[in-house]
Specification:
Mean pLDDT: 87
CATH topology of the largest domain: Creatine Amidinohydrolase
Shape: globular
Function: Catalyzes the removal of a penultimate prolyl residue from the N-termini of peptides.
Enzyme class: hydrolase
Radius of gyration: 26 Å
Family: Belongs to the peptidase M24B family.
Largest sheet: 6 strands, mixed
Number of strands: 27
Strand content: 15-25%
GO biological process, one term: proteolysis
CATH class of the largest domain: Alpha Beta
Number of helices: 14
Strand order of the largest sheet: 14-13-12-9-15-16
Pfam family, one: AMP_N
Length: about 500
């Protein structure tokens, strides 16, 4: 039922080694059919088939647990394993990871689990970003083992997945199965994940060290949960398979790989930024009377513009609701004399965008709204211009600069900025890393100097409480302006410039 490695995007391995071109230049051996081997060249759909007597099955007629170019050519280009990212790039990522491991060491990474919502209903599946980054495999219940190899491939890659199961697939949809783990995702070895307890001890027995982040149960539960259900086990069955002296954290190695985006990743994030930014600008053209309506419009536009889904729960905060930085109820009325703060963006191919815009509900700024908005915009544009390697700054340094810029700008419009005023009015950080996660590469230092390939946000904001200390005409106003930015050597690339932010541009949309 499955096609062979010759169609594995850009790295279809033949019997004589690895071809790294997008169109495989050597014949690649397909699985044996009726006692003979079939061969395919290039990866064109018409040339990828298996024959069963008088019946020929093309790859496009087969089913998998995720879109492939052969089944969804409207979503993926030839050579891509996920939208925008080729199989060759996934192979190169695994090779770089293996290159950072000590001799004889392996890395073990697990897929995410499907999270039940209620009963037989479940939440939309979200793959573990580290697992997706290394494998391109977008199904739950899977495990990857990666290490250095002694041959020309540069690494070995084991991928254990759910096997094909007709009965289960009737209810859950298609699975890719173990044969596709080899043929499509280029694993050197595979197996049914249901047998992992017997497979893994053999795989890990000879490893000198095991780099992983999955030996401890998730401790991120609330105090109430611990009170009701107890503390999670200190050890898992998996961790008990491994000599504790062999276990090392994988996080810092993965972060170093993921923090620097490839040209393909930046291009994909730019596409998502354009799609998301256009949705913001389209929303500014419309009139809305409720937060929920605006929320629904943005979700719709992200998808129709080409995104797969929303990147995170949107903030649609009218008036004083914007003082709640992560306000996501989005259930209030929008008033013409207020501004609305929108923090929302889309996601595609596992990569997100992150945008915040603030605009007047009626389309035109009042004098006070314009002054506060401009104070934030001036700072934001100045900080964006510093997102380049030759500026020699870190995220923490950018934050310090932001505080000074905002304090100066707010003084000019009548704010008393003595004491810790700036910390009250600007309580969050100026930036975070972005990529496959909204807050990407958790634990990667904000003290690191930004370099070409880093992708970050720039998001100054001012949130004015209803307190006597602040000028009356600014109270209960909130302004945040956020762009996603790719750091260049000498200049930044703003990934979200389709979302307009100049006062004149915003007001012109309703003319």
């Amino acid at each position: 039922m499955f096609y062979g490695r010759s169609i594995c995007r850009s790295i279809g391995r033949s019997t004589s080694g690895l071809s790294s071109c997008v169109s495989v230049s050597r014949k690649a051996r397909l699985p044996c059919v009726a006692g003979r081997w079939s061969y395919a060249r290039g990866g064109q759909i018409a040339q990828i088939c298996r024959s069963y007597g008088t019946t020929t099955i093309h790859a496009g007629e087969l089913s998998f647990g995720q879109p492939l170019h052969e089944t969804h050519p409207h979503l993926l280009q030839p050579g891509e394993l996920t939208p925008g990212i080729t199989a060759q790039e996934y192979y190169d990522r695994r090779t770089r990871l293996a290159g950072k491991l000590p001799k004889g060491a392996v890395a073990v990474v697990a897929a995410a689990e499907l999270v039940q919502r209620t009963g037989s209903c479940f939440h939309e599946f979200h793959q573990d970003p580290d697992f997706l980054y290394l494998t391109g495999f977008n199904e739950p219940e899977a495990l990857a083992v990666i290490g250095k190899s002694q041959d020309a491939h540069g690494h070995f890659f084991h991928l254990y997945v759910r096997e094909k199961d007709r009965k289960a697939e009737i209810w859950e949809g298609s699975r890719s199965g173990t044969q596709a783990a080899v043929d499509v995702f280029n694993a050197d070895e595979t197996g049914d994940i249901s047998s992992i307890k017997t497979i893994l001890p053999r795989v890990l027995s000879d490893a000198t060290q095991v780099f992983t982040d999955i030996t401890q149960p998730d401790q991120g539960v609330s105090g109430l949960w611990r009170f009701l259900y107890g503390t999670p086990r200190r050890k898992t069955d998996f961790s008990e398979l491994i000599d504790s002296r062999k276990i090392k954290q994988l996080r810092h190695i993965i972060n170093e790989l993921r923090a620097y985006k490839s040209p393909a990743e930046i291009e994909l994030m730019h596409r998502v930024g354009r799609m998301s930014g256009k949705a913001h600008t389209d929303a500014m053209r419309q009139s809305f009377t409720g937060e929920r309506d605006l929320d629904a419009y943005l979700r719709y536009k992200f998808i129709t513009n080409g995104c797969d889904q929303i990147a995170y729960e949107p903030v649609v905060a009218g008036g004083k609701n914007g003082l709640g930085i992560h306000y996501v109820r989005n259930d209030d009325v929008l008033h013409d004399d207020e501004m609305v703060l929108i923090d929302a963006a889309g996601k595609k191919g596992g990569y997100i965008s992150d945008i915040t815009r603030t605009w007047p509900v009626k389309g035109k700024f009042s004098a006070a709204q314009r002054d506060l908005y401009s104070a934030v915009l001036i700072a934001q544009k100045s900080l964006v211009s510093m997102c380049r390697a030759d500026a020699d700054v870190s995220l923490d340094k950018l934050h310090s600069i932001t505080e000074n810029l905002l304090a100066d700008n707010l003084k000019q419009i009548g704010f008393d900025m003595s004491g810790k005023a700036v910390e009250t009015l600007f309580p969050h950080h100026i930036s975070h890393y972005i990529g496959m996660d909204v807050h990407d590469t958790a634990g990667y230092s904000r003290k690191a100097v930004i370099r070409e390939g880093h992708c970050i946000t720039i998001e100054p904001g001012i949130y004015v409480p209803d307190e006597d200390r602040w000028p009356k005409h600014f109270r209960n106003m909130a302004v945040r302006i956020e762009d996603s930015v790719a750091v260049g050597e000498e200049k930044p690339l703003v990934l979200t410039s389709e979302a307009v932010k100049e006062v004149k541009e915003i007001e012109a949309l309703r003319d």
